Amino acid sequence: MSLLNKLGITAIGAVAAVALAGIAAAEEPREGGTLIAANEAELGELDPHITCATSSARWVMNHIAEPLVQQDMTDEGSIPPPLIPGLAQSWDVSEDGKVYTFHLQQGVKFHDGTDFTADDVVYNVYRQFDQTTVGRENAPHFYEAAAAAAGWRWDIAGLDFVEAVDDHTVNFHLSHPFNPFLRMFTQTDCGPMGIISPESVEKYGNDGVQANMIGTGPFKFIERVPGDYMVLERFDDYWKEEWRALVDRLVILVMPDVAARQAALRAGEAHIVIAPDPDSLPKLVEEGFVISKGTMPHIWTVSFNEHEAAFADERVRLAVHHAIDREGMANQLLDGTALPGESWLSRTSEAFKEEDRWHAYDPAKARALLEEAGALGTKIVFATSTSGSGQMQPAKMAEWIQRNLIDAGFDAEIQLMEWNAYIAKFFEGFDPEWSLVQMSWGWTAAYWLDMFLNPGNQPDGMMDVGVGDAITAAHQMTDPAAANEAYHAIAEQVKASGWFMPIVNDTAPIVLSPCVRDYPHVSDWQTGFVARTWLGDC
Amino acid sequence: MVRFLAKRTVLALFTLWGVTVLIFILFQALPGDAAISLLGSQAGNPEAVARMRSYLGLDRPAYIQYFVWLGDLLQGDLGQSARFDQPVSKLILDKALNSIILLVGSAVVMFSVGIPLGIVAALRERSLFDRIGMGVIIVLGMVPVFWFGLLLIYLFALVLDVLPASRMYSFHDSNRTLSILVHLVLPAITTAAISITILARVTRASLLETLEAPFMQALIARGIPVRRRIWRHAMRNILPIMVNVSGLQIGWLFSGAIFTEVIFSWPGIGRLIYDAVSARDVPVALGGILVVGALFVLANLAADVATASLDPRRREAM
Amino acid sequence: MASSVGNEEEKNGTAEPVLRVRGLTTHFELSSHTVRAVDGIDLDVARGQTVCLVGESGSGKSATGLSILRLVPSPGRIVSGEISLNGVNLLDLDAKEMERVRGPEVTMVFQHPRAALDPYFRIGDQVTETAAIQMGLSRRQAHETAREHLAAVHVSQIDRITRAYPHQLSGGECQRVMIAMALLCRPKLLIADEPTSALDAKVQSDLLDVLREVTEEYEMAVILITHDIGVVERMADRVAVMYAGRIVEEGAARDVLSSPQHPYTLGLMNSVPKVGQRSRRLQQLDGQPPDPAAMPPGCRFAPRCAERVPHCSEVEPELRPVAPGRFARCHLRGDAPMAAEERAVPG
Q1: Does A40 touch chain B (CB under 8 A)?
Q2: CB-based contact (8 Å) between B155 and chain A?
Q3: Nearest to A73 by CA among A60, A88, A83, A87
Q4: Nearest residue on chain A to B277, judged by CA atoms?
Q5: Is C251 helix (H, G, I), strand (E, B) or coil?
Q6: Domains delineated in chain C
Q7: Contact: A36, B165; criterion CB under 8 Å
């Protein structure tokens, strides 16, 4: 209506008013109100240096604790979101790619009123990084749990030490060049790199951080009740005007039951529903709710067990690739809430190419390959979990695959396990009974490739396809374009090997109440950055 | 009486101790542990897992972990949840209070519906009310709690839009107490559903049986008016069994509440335990089960003592 | 049979009866068939008179007692007849009026005294409650009255009794309490259904004394239901013998006991153990009472009767006078059938 007033049109008919009001772009962002999101899982550990759960990190990262380098969390269109200054306003990389110098933002305050300085960056890193060069005595706040969760990042980046050059300059010294280093600051998996107030750590202790999280973000942490909710409030002294929060409060409800989440949305008790039931999306749209989808780093993968005798024959492996209808699964079974997997690279990776295609679905060819290998009726056991983080709808998807395999001439079985038991068994080494082993994962940063393909990270049963050195070499290239070509070549090699298969990429649908405006579904795990989201009429 | 209580208490403590041992063993047998669960996708990193295990104290032999836990327990310390960095006792207390709110609500629903329904059905035996009422009760008794809860949500929250669908209170409501009461209605009815059917049937049956007892005939023969026969004599006669059944039902309401807490996202102890088991948060799971077990035992004991002390014949025996 | 109080005339029921039952018929309607538990009974009981109803179990004597109080449990109901208590037909009263009749006008004492007391209330409370309701007394007055009446039935240790719960008392004590409660308002009619049969001999004897004493003192009409000939000998002024829902013989107690007329009564007497034997209960006669679903067409006793003639199995006999003041339902006794009205007031 404010637009109408500006235009001086006051005597306009009601029908036209409604029509004009319907043009969202014409609305002015409005401040105030409480935005409520229904989260799909327990928020778990909230300490940014410990949390490994995406469902927790998406609310902590950027909202409360910010990293040095950020992705543009309001840029919905770019894949991946472009890197922009975070707590570092700019950075230089040394010629040899081993020293990163960050020039920090000035005048930034933590939620507790203390100033953000270079020492705070060092303090944060040494809380997680078990440094050898500076000595433990310089980091009495070193935290074993944080090192366990976040230490891998510094290991993979080859960090030697961090130093504060002056109040607003920090140097990170690496033992080798590490191409994904800047993007690493933005990634949420295990130990997201948000900066917290050292004073608060000193005051509340290392294990008091999650109950007293003090960062620099647009929202400050107010309260968290395990199994129930977390309340954040707008931080009025936030340093970055463009990302100042519009709503007064952000409430995140813990609602593991999908029916309960959707009921809360329908009853007006929640504005945002994470992980809705894909089957109910058409109905929700009909009822006037808005579906927001994005491109995600997510890959719902299958690894071929190297100990499965039948897989020694390349033709049998290829038959599996041709047997599984990824497109059908994405569009029919999952109602378009997923995209077919086309590469071992994440779709959000800069190395991913739009024209990448996996082995085509071709059941006749699969059957022919099996016949040729004399392997018709080979028994395949497909292992997955009953549910779990990023697992989508594993049982239903496993059944789809089972049917595909049987259609192509395999004899297929499904083995389902409870999530935590499953990941434990997955990482301890594949059960000899398993033939195809499912897991979902993926990052925008290219070091994702290390996780399954670097022999040092592989559980027993996962095939070393001989790309470990190539990945390391690509990481150490100083020219990003060349590195991306190298990553792409590695992904092609993985495809050719036939030992791994991307099934689908989740689009992480989120349902919004019609009141919600400017919800950016950025292309990374941290969907849900809501500082610029506001509540309009509905 | 004191001897009876002492015996029952010792037995209860022994049972609860056995339960903790059993659960601890079950956790050992389950694949995965708190370190794996906390690390998620980094669970494949052996160094990270070893570090997290050592931080959590999971690198010690299982029996030592158990005795450390037991030793702490005897000093009144239920341990610490690594997932929330909070003392287990605080977590449990918060959630137990929420569960007790749900429990009290369910008990009120159970009593105020189950008993009157049973009484009216018995007093009008074979009437239309009796037939329809008992028919509904039988059907209700067969409907799974889960479906019943969803049905209530659909009907009252979505179609009629008169009651909230989930959670304990709304962040939109300014009056917290009122908000809790409004949010309590559907979960309380859901939790109480099965118990209502049991209480109504027991009330009806025991009242019918009492009304046919010889002393009721003798009361009629002495000209004691019908109201007095029913409300003074018959009610006093069925009181012990009602108290006993109610006590057992209150115990069962706990178990029903676990489903309700999930359906209605009620932040109670049932969900806390459920989450703790899936996250392998052993101290929280053990503490939660211990507290629920103790409440269950206490409810049963209280029901037994109340029943016995309401019955002059059993009062002497105790 | 000696009595110190009252006169012979009253004993023999020559005065206007307190209770006058005519054609009382009570059926139990089961799903498969109808049981005619009481099948057209006429009975008079005069002031101060004790009438014993005797017969085998299932003969309808208890159902008769319950019918008079309109206490027949479902699915039983009184089908027809008239129950006049001091000229008021109880069957015409509504439930509320009936409630006021029970207790002050007519009441009942049951076979199992402990079961007839509410197990959850102290004796004192139960007696006091009854007194307060029946007599419209305040709690204090009712309490005093209760103690007086307990004293009247000779219970020892009144304080202990009033504080006790039924399970803490002996059967005899319970029955005394029941009698005390029954007598609170001095009802015109007392129905006692096997009041002593569940008790041992000594207690039985004491209780019968108490019963005799109080009913004589208050000049109550009493229907005493029993199958104990000893009780009949001790208590009865008149006896009515029931068989299969009907009265088959009626008369003054001493006459019936000394010279039973109906073959069934005869059978009952013969089956009584001789003097000196402990138990004097009625023994089962040979054979079974008839199936209520299929009553024999003629005399209901005919199938078991040693004296039966063919006529007995065809026509059911009427209750006819066989001697002055004596009636029997048998083709082989007396001269001619007699109308019910003519023998209504036996003389």
Answers
A1: no
A2: no
A3: A83
A4: A420
A5: strand
A6: 1-105+189-198+219-274+282-347 (3.40.50.300), 112-186 (no CATH)
A7: no
CB atoms within 10 A of CB B12: 17
- Closest alpha carbon to C115 in C62, C164, C175: C175
Which residue type sits at A376? L
Task: Collapse the DSSP code of C188 into the 3-class scheme (helix H, G, I; strand E, B; otherwise coil) and give the result.
Answer: coil
CB contact under 8 A, B84 and A256: no
Peptide bond before residue C289 is cis, with ω within 30 degrees of 0:
no
Å from A251 to nearest chain B CA? 8
Q: Does A419 touch chain B (CB under 8 A)?
A: yes
Nearest to A260 among B55, B82, B264 (CB): B264
Q: Torsion-angle region of residue B171: left (phi > 0), alpha (psi -120 to 50) or beta?
A: alpha
Q: What secondary structure letter does DSSP report for A503?
A: E
Return the H-helix or E-strand segment holding C266.
helix C263-270
Q: Work out the burial of residue A163: count CB atoms within 10 Å of its CB; fewer than 13 is exposed, 13-18 middle, 19 or more buried.
A: middle
| Interval A219-244: pLDDT, tens | 999 999 988 899 999 999 999 999 99
Q: How many CB pairs under 8 A join A and B?
A: 172
CA angle B245, B251, B256 (to 5 degrees): 110
Task: Report ipTM for this prediction.
Answer: 0.84
Q: Does A431 touch chain B (CB under 8 A)?
A: no
Interface test with B, best of A40, A52, A253, A419 (most B CBs within 10 A): A52
B146 touches chain A (CB under 8 A): no
Q: How many CB atoms lie within 10 A of CB A176?
A: 13
Q: At what angle do helices B145-152 and B176-211 cross, to 10 degrees?
A: 130
CA–CA min distance B223, chain C (Å): 5
DSSP state of C45: E
Which chains have 3 or more CB–CB distances shorter than 8 Å to chain A? B
Peptide bond into C260 cis (omega under 30): no
Q: Which residues of chain B have pLDDT under 50?
A: none
pLDDT digits (tens, 9 = 90+) for B101-115: 999 999 999 999 999
DSSP A415-476: EEE-HHHHHHHHHH---TT-SEEEEEE--SSTTHHHHHHSGGGPPTTB---S-HHHHHHHHT
Whether chain B has a CB inside 8 Å of the CB on C171: the answer is no
Q: Residues of chain A whose pLDDT is less than 50?
A: 1-24
Q: What is the pLDDT of residue C4?
A: 37
Does any CB of chain B come closer than 8 Å to the CB of residue C116?
yes
- Residue C99 in contact with partner chain B when CB distance is under 8 A: yes
**Closest C-alpha to A334, from A397, A273, A391, A291:** A397
C154: β partners: none
Scanning the structure block, which residue is given the tokens 């073959």? C263
CB C280 within 8 A of CB C92: no
B36 touches A: beta carbon within 8 Å? yes
DSSP A71: E
Q: Rounded to the nearest 10 degrees, what angle do helices B235-263 and B269-278 cross at? A: 40
What secondary structure does DSSP assign to B16-75, as a single string? HHHHHHHHHHHHHHSS--HHHHHHGGGGG-HHHHHHHHHHHTTTS-HHHHHHHHHHHHHT
Closest CA in chain B for residue C65 = B221
Asked if A touches C (at least 3 Cβ pairs < 8 angstroms), the answer reads no
**CA nearest to B152 within chain A:** A263
Summary mean pLDDT of chain A: 91
Contacts of residue C15, defined as CB under 8 A and 6 or more positions apart, other chains included, come to: C9, C46, C47
Contacts of A506 by beta carbon, 8 Å cutoff, 6+ apart:
A296, A298, A300, A337, A338, A390, A392, A440
Reference C114, options B307, B232, B310, B313; nearest CA is: B313
**Considering only CB atoms, which chain A residues are within 8 Å of B275?**
42, 227, 256
H helix runs in A298-390, sequence order: 314-323, 326-328, 363-372
